Amino acid sequence: MSANGLRVLVIGAGAGIFRAHRAGLEAIGARVVGVQDVDPDRVERVADELECPGHTETAELLEIPADLAVILAPHPFHAPLTIACLHAGLHVLVEKPIAIQVAEADAMAEEADRCGRVLAVAFQQRTRPEVLEARRLVDQGFLGELQHAALLSTWPRRHAYFDLGPWRGSWRGEGGGVLLNQGEHDLDLLCHLAGVPATVFGWTRTRMHPVETEDTVEAILQWSSGAVGSVHISTAEVDEAQRIELTGSRGRLRLLPGRLEATRNREDFREYAASVGDPFQGPEPGELSVFEGAGNGHEDLYRDLARALGTGLAPIAPAREATRALELANAIILSSKSGEVVGLPLDRPRYGALLRDLQERSGTHELTRSR
After folding, report:
1. Which of 120, 54, 111 is nearest to 88 (CA)?
2. Which one, of 54, 62, 121, lies nearest residue 90 by Cα?
3. pLDDT at residue 4, rounded to an integer
4. Which superfamily does CATH assign the domain made up of 126-295+324-360 to?
5. Maximum CA extent, the chain
6. What is the mean pLDDT of the segment spanning 94-115?
7. What are the CB-based long-range contacts (under 8 Å, 24+) for 203-210?
8. From 71, 141, 238, 329, which residue has the greatest number of CB atoms within 10 Å?
9. What are the Cα distances from residue 236, in Å, to 158, 176, 178, 217?
10. Topology of the domain comprising 3-123+298-316
11. Whole-angstrom Cα distance, residue 192 to residue 189?
């Protein structure tokens, strides 16, 4: 499939994030042949700009011949809209998070397999050069045996951010707070580089913002190998935008926006620990190398998607991999609400029951398919 001939439908085209996706579509020469949004004024404006049909109903949009659907609607609609598009014979790129609970994401991935279509998730941060380099080093065994992983991420927001849409910060509208919205990028990179932890104990808090869902999260993680780690994500404080630190027996990686610091130990710590010598003398300092990265746009995400559609290879963030960040987010929420250590794979029915209870008690009364 040629990217230049790619016909695209956009669902939730009135969303602010569409500007970034439009840049990505233009980068590969794709053509938007139809747009949808529940807001008639917004869909008319976007349709006029793109000179294509605009609809308020998804069923009408899916009657237009196309190859790819881009889904930008709020999180609770991702699963049903994705499955409808797959049934219509379309490949799908869905905004993060892939869904609001893992059981939905499982169903989406299974349906994509059944239909023989690509289902990709908009985790554009995976395309950052410094992230690609970190993944390359991990795959080559740079870290040795993973010992510790730490994630810190802050996304400062004003109260006004949550006023932009009644669905934001509510259990019915988002299915979670910073974990389901901004923090999905961070959790995805952590799982992408360190793998999925085996157990989680978490705390979610609403510290600053007038919302139902969490604006601050702390969690302790343990991997099946015995490695341990932590997560701290917040929209209610100012700190580094993102910092992921991985410590292994052979080396250390420190990932920041636009920068990767890699320190290679002179000897594997397992060898140092077993060696003969002064019991108080530490190992010699390792060698530090710095890799400068750049970019975090959707252009590279769409170039990768075009490559996947053209070659049959997997996209950089396929559905089953993208589900891991959602599963970790769900596990942290379940742990916080239950006060228990939660194991992964997540108990899908148990989390589904918790989410239904939270949604039933949610105070949000207006929910639309626009971001």
Report:
1. 111
2. 62
3. 66
4. Dihydrodipicolinate Reductase; domain 2 (3.30.360.10)
5. 76
6. 98
7. 203/336, 204/177, 204/179, 204/332, 204/333, 204/336, 204/337, 206/177, 207/234, 207/236, 207/237, 208/235, 208/236, 208/237, 209/157, 209/159, 209/162, 209/169, 209/235, 209/236, 210/159, 210/162, 210/169
8. 329
9. 9, 15, 10, 10
10. Rossmann fold (3.40.50)
11. 5
The residues near 106 (Cβ < 8 Å, ≥ 6 apart) are 323, 348
Give me the helix-helix angle, 348-360 and 319-338, nearest 10°: 70
Alpha-carbon separation of residue 131 from 27, 47, 125, 138, 265 (angstroms): 21, 36, 8, 10, 21
210-221: pLDDT as tens digits: 999 999 999 999
> Beta partners for 246?
149, 253
Residues of each domain in the chain carrying CATH 3.40.50.720: 3-123+298-316
- Cis status of the peptide bond prior to 97, with omega within 30 of 0: yes
Please name every residue paired with 248 in a beta bridge, in sequence order, or none if there are none: 146
| β-bridge mates for residue 202, sequence order | 219
Q: Which residues contact 141 (CB under 8 A, 6 or more apart)?
A: 250
Residues 220-240: tens digit of each pLDDT: 999 999 999 999 999 999 999
The whole-model pTM stands at 0.95
Q: What would the pLDDT profile of 284-332 be if each residue is shown by its tens digit?
A: 989 999 999 986 689 999 999 999 999 999 999 999 999 999 999 999 9
The pair of three-digit structure tokens given for residue 174, joined into one six-digit string:
């988002």
Sequence ranges of the chain with CATH classification 3.30.360.10: 126-295+324-360
Total Cβ atoms within 10 A of residue 357: 12
| Burial label, 303 (beta-carbon count in 10 A; 0-12, 13-18, 19+) | middle
Q: Specify the pairing of strand 199-205 against strand 146-154.
A: unpaired
Asked whether the beta carbons of 53 and 47 are under 8 A apart, the reply is yes
